């Protein structure tokens, strides 16, 4: 039995006539009668009572009609889902976010705009650090990630620049330097620095140290923060100062002030990472929306990287 037989069965039941059903289906009446007889023989039941004028469903036919409609409905749903997946309009996408990335305004904007464009797609967000997100990509636990490059042991992954974010200095409230809205790194030479472990974001970690060295000093390391966003509460506790992505100024711990930095300030880089060789329209749609939202934010503190040709070809 194939689904064509069920379509014929439903058409005859709806029309109450082989002749009218054949006209609706666009086939000849004798082949239709033969197909229905073949279905009855295969099922071992009589579906229709043949009358002088038309047909009438048997009791068994009445029961099976609802199930036939349900199966045909499932077929249509299956086809619609498959076609939606092929166009990137249906399904789900699992997005990993490195430390503090969720605080960037383009993230909720991207999710909202993506949901408006493709309401049948479900987005799952997972916050972690770059090494853990790399592993999740390899394990296929997530589909795409916004990470802080470089990505350690990134074999098998496609990593392309997304943006560079301005950094600011976080000072404990009441700190002598807090009277200055703008600071230079040299002014922090005697301050203990709160920084996260290098393995969580080697690129940003090294950028901070390099900027300090270019400013003529080696920072005095203080308390180590378990995550990038965790630096703010430690600064609020008076354990030191920190250089953080500007988006962290949204964390209001009540005991921190934020200050812009001069030309020697490091930049916090972000990149898009996904498995190499993925040909998924859904990912291409998400990346396109993400990049468009980054551009639309028009924030002078953020430099948006151009799209790479190999990334565009992979995620399509």
Question: In short, what is this structure?
Answer:
GO terms for molecular function: DNA binding; DNA-binding transcription factor activity. This is LysR family transcriptional regulator. By secondary structure, the protein is of the alpha/beta class.
Report on the structure:
With 316 residues, the protein is α/β, with parallel strands linked by helices. It folds into three domains: 3-87, Arc Repressor Mutant, subunit A; 91-164 and 269-302, 3-Layer(aba) Sandwich (D-Maltodextrin-Binding Protein, domain 2), CATH 3.40.190.10; 167-266, D-Maltodextrin-Binding Protein, domain 2 (3-Layer(aba) Sandwich). It has helices at 3-15, 18-25, 29-43, 59-87, 106-117, 130-138, 202-214, 231-236, 281-297, 309-314, and strands spanning 48-50, 55-57, 91-97, 121-127, 144-147, 157-172, 182-183, 192-195, 220-224, 242-245, 256-261, 267-275, 302-304. Strands 3, 4, 5, 6, 7, 10, 11, 12 and 13 form a nine-stranded mixed sheet that branches. Strand 1 and strand 2 form a beta hairpin. The longest helix is centred in the N-terminal third of the chain and has 29 residues, at 59-87. It is rod-shaped. The model has no long low-confidence stretch (mean pLDDT 87). Belongs to the LysR transcriptional regulatory family.
